[in-house]
Specification:
Layout lengths: L1 H17 L3 H12 L4 H7 L8 H38 L18 H15 L3 E2 L5 E3 H4 L24 E3 L5 H9 L4 E10 L11 E11 L4 H16 L5 E8 L2 E10 L16 E10 L1 H6 L8 E8 H9 L12 H4 L3
Helix pairs in contact: 1-4, 2-4, 5-10
Bound molecules: 3,4-dihydroxyphenylalanine.
The site of 3,4-dihydroxyphenylalanine has 11 residues, from β8 and β9.
Amino acid sequence: MKQQLEQIALAARAELSKISDQADLEALRIRFLGKKGELTAIMKGMAGLSAEERPVIGQLANRIRAEIEQEITERLAEIKAAASEAKLRAERLDVTLPGTAPKLGKIHPMDKVLHDIEDIFIGMGFDIAEGPEVEYDYYNFEALNLPPDHPARDTQDTFYVTDNVLLRTQTSSVQIHVMENKKPPIRIISPGRVYRSDPLDATHSPIFHQIECLVVDKGITMATLVGTLDMLLKRIYGEECKIRLRPHHFPFTEPSAEVDIVCFNCGGKGCSMCKGEGYVELLGAGMVHPKVLANCGIDPEVYSGFAFGLGLERMTMGKYGINDLRLLYENDLRFLGQF
Ligand code: DAH
């Protein structure tokens, strides 16, 4: 019996050294130490032993049981430690790896130019005025000295909601709202969306953006207008930028001018962008027509004013050398990411 016990001890030890898994370890425990296990079976047979042998074998059996138990406990601790080590290794984070930066949006180039222009004017004490995009004929045309059947309406065909209500073709309509509600001195700019029934191409869009400027006070002259424009365009395009005024006709200004800037592309030599002119047209301007002032209840004998309206798309294209207006609307991130 003693031999049997020692064999069990040897066998248990040999198997234990091969086990690397908790479930196998439990199976081994049941096999050797469980109620129906090998050691228990032998201990049950002890009844047939003599009175001298029984305590000797009993002690040996208990010692072997205790040793196997002890070894199982140790092996269990080792297996658990190895498992947690493996888990830690598998879940290891390399904190020295560079993170994934969140993708930041960018300000649209037209918004950049708009914000710059707004900053320049706010710095000079101007207010920013807003007006409706769905507008009465009166504000878009009639009060601006464009009565029904005026030929200049042809160049600004638009989308009509009714005969009398339309999508505004110009931010000049805001001039009327402002002058109806505020008496001079008036200094405002009004950026916003305008509409015309033009097909979309590299230089035209049925929806585009203008910024209107209106100053009404005593003693405002063409010199105030030119000084303001010169300062604005130098701030946007740089000190070396040069402008010129060409006589023009707008029904709501007298005199009127178109304002050109030396071509961004060729610097005045003449190229395909300026069609050989050396200049590109940037905006319309003039002295507010006395009739327009009178339409808004402002006495043209006392007050005078200047106004201009510039195209935000054109300003932006000039500033960044963009040659196709459609790029500004397509929201292609490869394009927008460059600014
Ligand atoms: N509203 C004109 C246009 O869309 C631009 C313009 C010209 C605005 C002269 C003005 C101005 O305020 O004085 O073509």
